[in-house]
Specification:
78 residues; mainly alpha; two-stranded antiparallel ribbon; 2 strands; 54% helix; globular
Length: 78
């Protein structure tokens, strides 16, 4: 997900370059995707978000682009 964020960020101009913006965009996007995780025998949880198919990559890209817009229009209060 973070790699797709970085890839798309390079194609869109005028976005804030802060950790807060990145975190808000990724949180927004992750909250709109179906959960994909597995429990490990050690009790931990590992995310299984894979960008294997073009369709899945396109869906993630659309959600991240939407997140850019929403987060930029409604920034977190300082």
């Amino acid at each position: 997900m973070a790699q797709e964020y970085l890839r798309l960020r390079e194609t869109v101009g005028g976005l804030p370059e802060t950790d807060e913006f990145r975190d808000d965009v990724l949180a927004y996007a992750l909250n709109r995707l179906a959960p994909r995780y597995v429990a490990q025998r050690t009790g931990g949880v590992v995310s299984q978000l894979k960008l294997q198919s073009d369709q899945e990559r396109a869906r993630i890209s659309v959600i991240i682009l939407e997140a850019f817009r929403v987060v930029q229009e409604t920034p977190r209060d300082a």
